[in-house]
Amino acid sequence: MKTLRMFAARLSALFGRQRRDADLHDEVEAHLHALAEEHRLGGMSARDARAAARRDFGGVDQMKEAYRDQRGLPRIEAAARDVQYALRGFRKNPGFVGAVVLSLALGIGVTSAVFTVVNALMLTPLPVHNPRDLFVATPELAGDSTGAPALPARFSYPAFESLRRAVPAPGSLAAMSRVARMYRQTGGEGGFQQISVQLVSGEFFSVLGVSAARGRLLGPADNRTLGGHPVAVMSHALWSGAFGADEMVIGRILTVNGQPLTIVGVAPAGFSGVWLESPVDLWTPLMMQDGVHYRQNYSASGASPIKPWVPQENIRWLDLVGRKADAASTSTALALASAFQGLVSRAADDVPEALRARFRQQRLTLQPFGRGFSNLRTNFAPPLFALLGMAALVLLIACANAANLMLARAAARRREIAIRVSLGASRGRVIQQLLTESVLLSAAACAAGLLTAGWAADLLVRRAAGTGASLAVGVDWRVVVFAIVSAVATVLLAGLAPAFRTTKVETSLALRSASARGARARPRLQKALVAAQVGLSLVLVVAAGLFVQTLRNYARLSLGYSQEHVLSVSINFNSTGYPMERLSGLSDALIERVEAVPGVISASTAMCGLASGCRATSDIVIDGYRPAPGEPVRVQENRVSSSYFATTGMRLLDGRGLDGRDRANTAKVAVVNRSMARRYFPGQSPIGRRFGYDTPDIEIVGVVEDGRVNRVQQAPTPMAFYPMSQGADPEVVDARTSGDPRVLVNEIRRAVSDVVPNVPTTVFVLSEQVANGLNQERLVAGLTSIFGVLALGLASLGLFGVMSYAVTQRTVEFGIRMALGAPRSSVLSGVLRESLATAGLGLAAGLPAVLALSHAMGALLFGISPTDFRTMSSGVALLIVVAAAASIAPAWRASRVDPIVALRQE
Questions:
Q1: 762, containing H or E segment
Q2: Are residues 668 and 791 located together in one domain of the fold?
Q3: CB of 903 closer than 8 Å to CB of 815
Q4: Is the pLDDT of residue 184 over 90?
Q5: Is 174 helix (H, G, I), strand (E, B) or coil?
Q6: Range of the domain at 417
Q7: How far is the CA of 525 from the CAs of 492, 696, 701, 711, in angstroms?
Q8: What is the DSSP letter of 505?
Q9: What gap in Å lies between CA 290 and CA 458, rounded to an integer?
Q10: pLDDT digit string (tens) for 781-836?
Q11: Do the domain assignments include residue 107?
């Protein structure tokens, strides 16, 4: 208690300092007056008595300082004085402060912006109760090397019910569909609004641990009868946005894809589903799949996709998410694994014999699900971590630049520091003062970096994922901690060396003339820091060159189809429950009407559009082909009209294309691509060969050139094109135009609407769609180029500053040399050689780092070697040119020194 009371007293002494100092002054004066009075009564004069009293009392100022130390908190007071002194110094040197803060703010801001995206994608958990307890059930197939997307395989609804009943707590397992774009009918212009809808089981919200903000959420009672639960839960974002937070929204009916749904509740704020970049607007029960015409993201074998999916065992369209407590985690996993193996054994009898052994190899795994699903996380993680590493290099370069600036300022303050040391200040006390300045500069840079990190990260995500993505990124406590750690690192990297070097002075030398000090001063540490900047800059410049060349290689790549002058129209029949009987003959009608538009050369229809992300695949059997054990025999599919290959520019290599002979009542045929022919029919013509789903009943009639139909980055896979007339409905209309397709957007949209009125359509230019697929590569190339430019700028400024300082310190030396007959060109070339030698040292040190980093980034490159000689040599040459340019001005100033003026400085 005594210690606590003493601390409280010391703390209170920090306040009312002026009053306490006045009281102390009055008390000391009273003592001095009493002593002086005694001496005056002894016969001294008043002046002598006052002097004798001060001698008897001792050092007044020392006593006051000791008293202040006893009554307050000396370290806090000293720190406050250091801050005040530093701020006064900053006001006198605004240029220095601006240069250091800007340099560090660039480094911290860039690094924090990239980390903000890393945090949103990789670290931030779902906003649900105990997200670490969530898992996703995933069937895995040993030996599957098909390169399929790393997303969990899906389950049928009957399989979900079997697994749900098998777990100890049936309410701890839920099912959900993928997020789908649907349309709700509105009374406004256009009549439709696109929204994101997800179908879920009744256990979905309780498994996640989510509570309703208004009304109630879906429960098991909402998912029992096929088509009998036309209810929905609205997201908080949709409720507060489109509906203005209307409290009367509960009970309101929304018509989604032609199905009336009653709103029963509003989800809590901040919860938008479990797909990071695809926030959900509406949740509705799985039993309403047929009612809302959900017809995407599924795989089927021996099933009818046009009938309700819930009762069918062979339509797989659901992801399973569950929650396990620590006490029941083992029993839950065992129960699910056992039930899954039972499902596999029963279903294996219906699988073709050639695929049966591979089918039985499936195993169920429970993977952590605390961060939810994310396509962006899967695709963007490698380049994102590469960007984070390069942003850290920018921060290191900024720290080196700031350290150089601080060293230059410290050199100008050597006389001040020497005086302070001579007057009794300890080295530790001076270092504390200098580090306080570094902390203030880093704090200002940290604040500036955080101000820009949020919007820069949002821009980064939009550029990476396209305008359609809606990933919420923001500055949370993790980003703040990261920025503070970065600021502390800048203090250690940029502040310690100048502080220790500046306080290590010989006071006698530091107090001499400037020329005498300059005679011995050599900026060795500054040059080492500049060399480090040059080496790190080389890494960033070469990385930028490699990524720019990668982007260029993708842009120049032949896609196997002609993307120019093609306009695509996506038709959403499900939005209005378009009558199935009216789809017959629709393909021909659409083609005829679109081709009638002036400027349209040809038109075609397809089930899947080019570069649209539609990856319809099926396992097949091929007549005469015996797959290796565990080998998947799989083909990507599309159903197209006979004019499809001419419209898209796909070149026919062998056989014939699809034409009028291919009707619904004729033999099944297909045109395959070169990849399928080479893989399954090596060294022979595939024309006339047969394949199929359960039996090989489809005849190959032609072969077309390979096309990168999914993404530019994805190599062609085995693919088959079937006639539109043999079992599909047109979902995409492609039109080849004679000029700019953007001019015909409205005319082609109207042409499609004339054939299918009151059906929502989406129009896009194919070349723009393809270009959007390179957003990530374009972003990485752009950011690394910016990083490279920043690094070059900081390195050149650092080199310019060091050489300018060196020239200033050696002014007398240059004057003496020219007075003794040295030509100006000799001085000029000498300074340039010194600068280039410093840059050369940095380049030599940076080359091993360049090689190591280039190999690490090899998986992100395309069409270029990580050790490409041209890129590396170009980076070295560029840095040499920058170093020479940064040194010309100091070298020229050194060569123009007047010997007489220089010698007079002595």
A1: strand 761-765
A2: no
A3: yes
A4: no
A5: strand
A6: 75-124+380-511
A7: 16, 76, 74, 50
A8: -
A9: 37
A10: 988 998 999 889 888 888 887 888 778 777 778 888 887 778 888 888 888 888 88
A11: yes
Paired residues of 193 in beta bridges: 184
- Separation of alpha carbons 637 and 724, rounded Å: 12
Question: Does residue 32 form part of some domain?
Answer: yes
Q: Which amino acid is at 133?
A: D
Average pLDDT of span 652-668: 91
Q: How far apart, in whole angstroms, are the C-alpha atoms of residue 547 and residue 196?
A: 35
Q: Are 277 and 233 in contact (CB under 8 A)?
A: no
Burial class (CB within 10 angstroms; exposed 0-12, middle 13-18, buried 19+) of 1: exposed
DSSP codes, 268-328 = PTT---SBTTS--SEEEEGGGTTTTT---S-EESS--TTS-STT-TTEE-BEEEEE--TTT
**Which range, 440-444, 512-516, 570-574, is most confident?**
440-444
**Residues 573-603, buried b or exposed e (16+ Cβ, 10 A)?**
bbbbebeeeeeeebbeebbebbbebebbebb
CA distance 668 to 147: 29
Same structural domain, 670 and 788: no
The residue behind tokens 């032949």 is: 558
Which amino acid, 262? T
**Domain shared by 287 and 364, yes or no:** yes
Burial of 615 per CB tally in 10 Å (0-12, 13-18, 19+): middle
590/491 same-domain check: no
First to last CA, the chain: 65
CA–CA dist 895, 889 (Å, integer): 10
Close Cβ partners of 881 (under 8 Å, ≥ 6 residues apart): none
The stretch 130-154 carries a mean pLDDT of 66
Could you tell me which of 185, 207, 200 has the C-alpha nearest to residue 235?
A: 200
CB 358 within 8 A of CB 141: yes
Query: Tell me: the pLDDT tens digits for 290-322?
Result: 999 898 888 777 778 878 999 998 888 999 999
Alpha helices in 556-619 (DSSP H): 586-595
If asked whether residues 186 and 312 sit together in one domain, one would say yes
- Return left, alpha or beta for 38; rule: phi > 0 is left, psi -120 to 50 is alpha, else beta: alpha
- Token representation of residue 447: 């604040």
Structural tokens at position 251: 């009970």
Which whole-number Å values give the CA distances from 528 to 399, 498, 525, 845, in the listed order? 13, 13, 5, 11
Pairs from 64-73 (Cβ < 8 Å, separation ≥ 24): 64/21, 64/24, 64/25, 64/28, 67/24, 68/21, 68/24, 71/9, 71/10, 71/13, 71/20, 72/10, 72/13, 72/14, 72/17, 73/10, 73/11, 73/13, 73/14
CA separation for the pair 670, 703 (Å, rounded)? 9
Which of residues 565 and 418 earns the better pLDDT score? 565
pLDDT of residue 228: 94
The 3-state DSSP class for residue 720 equals: strand
Spatial distance between the Cα atoms of 877 and 842, rounded to a whole number of angstroms: 13
The neighbour count for residue 842, using CB atoms within 10 Å, is 26
Residue 192 near residue 760 (C-beta atoms within 8 A):
yes
Does 390 map to a domain? Answer: yes
Q: Which two tokens stand for residue 499?
A: 């502080």
Strands 173-176 and 253-256: unpaired
Using DSSP's 3-state secondary structure scheme, residue 703 falls into strand
Query: What is the spatial distance between Cα 573 and Cα 753, in angstroms, rounded to a whole number?
Result: 12
Helical residues (DSSP H) of 596-735, grouped into ranges: 644-648, 674-680
Number of H helices, E strands in the chain: 29, 25
Between the CA of residue 728 and those of 21, 201, 307, 695, what are the distances in Å?
Answer: 93, 30, 14, 20
Task: Say if 520 falls within a structural domain.
Answer: no
Going by pLDDT thresholds of 50, 70 and 90, the confidence category of residue 146 is very low
Looking at the structure, do residues 773 and 763 belong to the same domain, yes or no?
Answer: no
